[in-house]
Amino acid sequence: MIDNGPVERLESVPLAPPSSNNGLLAVFQRRYLLRLLVRREISARYQGSFLGLMWSYINPLSHFLVYWAVIGGILGLHKTVPNFPVHIFAGLIVVHFFTETFGAGTRSIVRNRSIVQKMPLPREMFPVATMLVSLYHVVPQVVIMVVACLLSGWTPDLYGMVCALLGIGVIMLIGTASALIFSVANVFFRDFGNIVNVLQMFVRFGVPMIYPYSIIDERFGRFAQFYTWNPLADAVLLFQRAFWVGTTAGPDDHVPGGYRTVAYTAAHDMPPNLILIGLAMVAVGALFLLLAQLIFTKFENKIPERL
Amino acid sequence: MTRSIQLDNVSKMFTLRYHRTFKEITVAMARGHQISHTFKAVDDVSFTVEQGEAIGLMGLNGSGKSTLLKMISGVMKPDEGTVLTRGRIAGLIATGAGFHPQLTGRDNLVLNAAILGMSEQELSRKFDEIVEFSGLEKKLETQVGYYSSGQSARLGFSVAIHVDSDIFLADEALAVGDKPFKRKCMQKMKEVRDSGRTIFYVSHAAASVKKMCSRVIVLEEGRLGFDGDVEEGIKYLHYDGDELDEEGDELDADEDTGDDV
Question: Left, alpha or beta for B58 (phi > 0: left; psi -120 to 50: alpha)?
């Protein structure tokens, strides 16, 4: 168990600061620890609750039902947007992935304070683990949506799948970056936990989930391009391009000729050059993550004493 | 000789904030009260440790021992000066390690070992040994929140001592353990010391420092008060005269340990 010749071996090791911090890189160098944290988080997030993991579905499902009934039924978007439930659901998966990462990520360091105060480990571990747990919850939701799409005549296409991956990628980057910044901010002032709730409301209404992008396009004309500067809105659009667009073929009175084709929806309800926008937003997300890492590193030193 | 730990003019500042909310801060500022107070928990400390030395870190409560140890372990970074170490570090910072009260003993053990840098293979090889050393076989599936302070210290110590580290830090690790466990730990630490690892041992018990350590460092209000011979260090702290009364129990424990080794 005990090393036989630690002294000889050590001579080749340089003297270094005890926590040589290379931030997010260290997180992925220590995958075993990351895996343990993710697994623990999955079992701990709904600990002590009777329904447990099911809350991860009840939550988006109840949102879905409310939007479907109020926006679709009462405000009448069922009539103008083809296959409106899938439209909402595609948006909801993306939005829920982001809000879960953002919300739980913000609390992650404070919640693990007993470990953070006493054990040396890259503290970026906690927000990253939270993002991965939320990603884990996305999978069954996507399965449900694929089934719903297949039932309404959807055939998967390569372009759409690339869009879906880009959309998820954008949220992973933006979500991790936001969680990093807010997790450290939350250590200093617990107010940030409440700010997150306010921001999440903006997120729900700032993306084309409960209304179609075509409305923005009609109302704002050439200013509609500014709407696509919001990476979260783009992630939703990318996801809808992947799943919802393919389900919209069918007779439709609002369309010239009385029949809507998939190509028509793709041209009419989606911004042009969607893949380019998606790639640009991945780049924006990467930059944002870099910025978040810089901010995190700047304030991280004070975490143990302020917890 | 290989240098194991090197501290150059290390200081750590803490800021005490008397008020946390916006309302309290504005009221205090309007009245001209101080709203925060900055003090040095560790003040301009420099020393070097060679590989294989066993250091007893002593000092009164609040003299900065734990803060110093946190900087050596990497949990905290110094505000001024540099801390350099060589090799892997394991140990306990204050009793109870960094345990998550809602997780079972088993989960905490695994997580703790991973944080201290054990790989999956290393852990599966040592798992039974760790559990056996802690003597907590029956409580392994219980949440750590229901452990007594002694029990969680045992678990923490058992994990930390089994990591293949080059530097072992023990911060009052044995303060809450019972006698048989203390004896076991002292024996294990001696093994570690004799294998050439560096030990940093925080204790108020003069007798066990005498048994374990080859050098004593005393902190006084964050400053280096004494660095040198064990006997002189204990004299410097005036721990030598009254140890028979106050540390009597500790002495007994160590006498026992002495017999066993």
Answer: beta
The ipTM estimated for the assembled molecules is 0.81
In chain B, domain spans: 1-87+167-174+194-261, 88-165
CB-based burial, B172-184: b 16+ in 10 Å, e otherwise? bbbbbbeeebbbb
Model confidence pLDDT, tens digit, residues A133-191? 999 989 888 988 898 899 888 888 999 999 999 999 999 999 999 999 999 999 988 88
Pairing type for strands B54-58 and A250-251 reads unpaired
Query: What pLDDT is stored for residue A175 in this prediction?
Result: 97
Chain A residues closer than 8 Å to B112 by CB: 119
Would you state the structure tokens that stand for residue A120, as one six-digit string? 């040396």
Query: Where does chain B show beta strands of DSSP type E?
Result: 3-17, 36-50, 54-58, 80-85, 89-92, 167-171, 198-202, 215-220, 223-228
> Between the CA of residue A277 and those of A82, A236, A238, what are the distances in Å?
24, 12, 9
Using a cut of 0.90, tell me whether the model's pTM lies above it: no
Report residue A271 as tokens.
Answer: 């911004």
Q: What is d(CA B1, CA B198) in angstroms, rounded to the nearest whole number?
A: 12
Residues of chain A in Cβ contact (below 8 Å) with chain B? 1-7, 10-11, 13-19, 30, 32-33, 36-37, 40, 44, 47, 112, 114-121, 301, 304-305
Distance CA B201, CA B52 (A): 13
The pLDDT tens digits for A34-54 are 999 998 888 776 777 777 777
Mutate to test the interface with B, among A7, A34, A113, A302 (most CBs of B within 10 A): A7
Q: Which residues of B touch A13 (CB under 8 A)?
A: 86-87
**How far, in Å, are B96, B109, B241 from residue B174 at the CA level?**
11, 18, 22
What kind and span of H or E run contains B136?
none
Contact call for residues A185 and A192 (beta carbons, < 8 A) = yes
Q: Which residues pair with B198 in a beta bridge?
A: B167
Q: What is the pLDDT of residue A242?
A: 93
pLDDT at B215 over 90: yes
Per CB-CB distance under 8 Å, the chain B contacts of A1 are 126, 129, 162, 164
Min Cα separation A34/chain B (Å): 9
A270 neighbors A191 (Cβ within 8 angstroms):
no
- Measured over the CA atoms of residue A144, residue A148, residue A149 and residue A151, the dihedral's sign is positive
The Cα-based distances of A246 to A96, A158, A170, A214, A216 in angstroms read 22, 12, 22, 16, 21
- Cα Rg for chain B, rounded, in angstroms? 20
Number of other residues whose CB lies within 10 A of the CB of residue A139: 8
CA end-to-end distance (rounded Å), chain A: 36
CATH superfamily of B1-87+167-174+194-261: P-loop containing nucleotide triphosphate hydrolases (3.40.50.300)
